[in-house]
Amino acid sequence: MAVSRKPVFQNLPSPPAAEKKPVSDTRHGIARSDDYAWMRAENWQAMFKDPSLLEPELRRHLEAENAYMEAAMADTVALQKTLFAEMKGRIKEDDSSVPMKDGPFAYGTAYVTGGEQPRYFRIPRDADHRDEASRKLLLDGDKEGSGKDYFRLAGLDHTTDHRFGIWGYDDKGSEYFTLRIRDLESGEDLPDVIENTGGGGVWAPDGKSFFYTLQDENHRPSKVFHHIVGQPQSQDRLVYEEKDPGFFMGVGGSLLDDFIYIDVHDHETSEYRLLSTKDLMAEPMLVAERVEGIEYSMTEGGDVFYILTNDGGAKDFKIMEAPVEAPGKANWREVVAHQPGRLIISHMAFARHLVWLQRKDGLPQIVIRDRQSGEEHAISFAEEAYSLGLQGAAEYETDVIRFSYSSMTTPSQLFDYNMSTRERVLLKTQEVPSGHNPDDYVTRRVMAPAHDGELVPVSLLYRKDVALDGTAPCLLYGYGAYGITIPASFSTNALSLADRGFVYAIAHIRGGKDKGFAWYEDGKMEKKQNTFRDFIAAADHLVKESFTSYENIIAEGGSAGGMLMGAIANMAPEKFAGIIAAVPFVDVLNTMLDDTLPLTPPEWPEWGNPLESEEEYQWIAAYSPYDNVGAKPYPPILALSGLTDPRVTYWEPTKWIARLREKAPDAGPYLLKTNMAAGHGGKSGRFQRLEEIAFEYAFAIKVAGKM
C-alpha cells in the first residue's frame, strides 16, 4: 500500500546520533546483539532515588533528544498554549468532592484556584460541605509540595478515633513513598518518618500503630512491617516477607476494623493472609494457599467473609462465603453462581447488602443483593456506552452506597443510592466552567471485525456536524493488557480534539476484560498478537465505515499500550499518520530476560518467561517492538518517558528511538521527550498534567495537518 502523508515536519535539524556499543547475548542457542544496551545506567537503582546521579553521557544524550524534540515541535507552541487554556477552562479550579461520612465526620478533598495539589478536609457529619467555614483543613498538598519539581500525595488515612492520619508523598517520581503521621487536631506532624514504602498504611483500631509495605532495592513490595507510633523505623517489626520475586504484595484493612488483609498476587494467582486486630503480634493466618491460575479476593461481612474467586472453572468469577472463624477453602460456600459472559469485577459487603460491579455485554453494571432474602436487583442506565465507578461507603452499618456515572458525552455524575428503598440521589454533576452541551456531540459503540471473526468494540466521540466521509482526523486509543478495561467515560480533554473535527475513538481490544475474562486470555502470552491485530482491525473498520482514512489516523497508547504502539508501527506503519507512545514498554524481550528489574518476575504470567522457556522466548521475540524495527515506512512517532520511571524504565523508549533512526532514517521523524523530573505518570500536578496532554494533542493536530 502506498503511503501518502502530509509533509508537516520540515527543515528539521539533524537528530541526535546515538553511539553504538554492541552487547551480545545468547539464550536457548539464539544469539542477539544490542547496540544500545549501554543506555541502561549501571546505577539505575540509586538514580531513581537521586536523579542527579545519572551518568553524564546519558544526560547529554537525553538532553539532546529533548532539544531535537523541541525544535520539531516549535511551531506548535502557540497551539499548546491554546489547548492548555481550553482544557484548564473546562476544570472547575476550586472544585471539591462530596465528603464521605465516617463516624462523627465526613472526609473530602478540595482544590483552590491555581492549585496543583488536593487539600484534604473534614466537616461535622451532617454539615453542608459547600459551607467552607465548616471545613477543617487536614493536609494542604500545595503547601507540602512547594518548591519541588515533582510531588505526588498518597492520600490521608485516619485512625478509628479520628485523631491521627497517615499521609504519604513521592517527590522523585520513582514511587518510593515517605510516610508521615499527622495530628489531625493540631495539624502538626509527629517525628516519625517511614521511608521507601508503597504509599500508604493501615491503622490498627487503637490508633497507636499501623502496617505498611516496604519497597526493596528492586522496587518490589516484598515485606509488610508493623510500625508503633513514636518508635524509629529501624525498630519496626517484620510481619510477613514474600520470598517469591514474582509476586506483588499489598496490605489493607476492613470496614469493621477486625482484620488486616495481606494480599499476595501476580496477574493470575493470589493468596491472602489475615491478621486479627485482637492480637496484632500474632502470625498472619493463611486463608487458601496459592495455586497457579486461581485468584481470590476477600471482604468482610460480619460473621462471614465474602470471597470473589475463579476457582472451580469459574472463568468469569463467582462469590463464595466462609465463616470468619474458619475461612479456609474447605468451608467456602457458593453465594453468587458463575455465569459465563458475566464478569464480576469487584465486590463489597455491608450489614444488610452484598454489592458487586460486573461487566456484561461489554457494559458495567452494579448489582445489589439483600443478604437476608437473597433478592437481587441491578441499577439501570439508558445510554449506549457508559462508565461506572463504585465507591461504596466508609461505614459497614449503612444502606447507602455511592457511585459515579458518565459517558463520552455526559459529564460525571455522583450519586448516593439507597440499597433498600432503591432511591437514587444526585449529589453532584461535573461542572464544565467554559460550557458543554452534550447535544453537540455523538457517542457510539461500533463493532470491528477482527482477523479471526471476533468483534472488537470501539467507542466513538465526535461532533454532530463532522462529515463522516473519510476526511475527519481520528485519534485511536488502545491499551489491551492485564485485563484492564478502558471505560467509555467523559473526558473534558478529548473535547479539544472533537471540537477540531476529530473522531476520538477507544478500541476495546483483547488483553482487556471488556468482553469477559476470555477476552483477556485471548490477548496474553502466546495469544498476545491478537491485541495488535485487533487494534489494526479497529483502524480498518473506521476507514471502511468512512469515519476517517489511513492518512488521518493518529494512534495513541501508553505503558503496555505503548508496546501496542510499537507493535502496530512494525506491523502496519502505512495505516497510521502518526503514533503517540507514552512511557512505552517496547524493549519487551530484554526486559523479560532481566529478572533484576522491578516488574520482570511478576510480569512473566502476562507475557511469558523467556529465561526458562525457548517457546516463550520466541513468542516475545516475534513481536517485541525494539527487536522488530526494520526499514519500513514509519509515520512520525512521539515517544514520552520519565527519567525515574520504575515501571517502564527510561532506556526502553530511548533505545527504541535510536534504533528507529538507524533502521529507517528516511521515515518518521522520531521524537523523544524525557521528563527529567518525573516517573511513569508524568508530571504530578493537575495543571502540569494538562500541559503534557496539550503537547501530545498538539502533535496529533500537527500530524493531521489541522494547525
From TrEMBL:
Keywords carried by this UniProt record: Hydrolase, Protease, Serine protease
Family in the record: Belongs to the peptidase S9A family.
Domain Peptidase S9 prolyl oligopeptidase catalytic: 489-705
Record-annotated Peptidase S9A N-terminal domain positions: 15-429
Basic and acidic residues composition bias: residue spans: 18-28
Name under which the protein is recorded: S9 family peptidase
Protein's UniProt keywords contain Transferase: no
Region spans: Disordered: 1-28
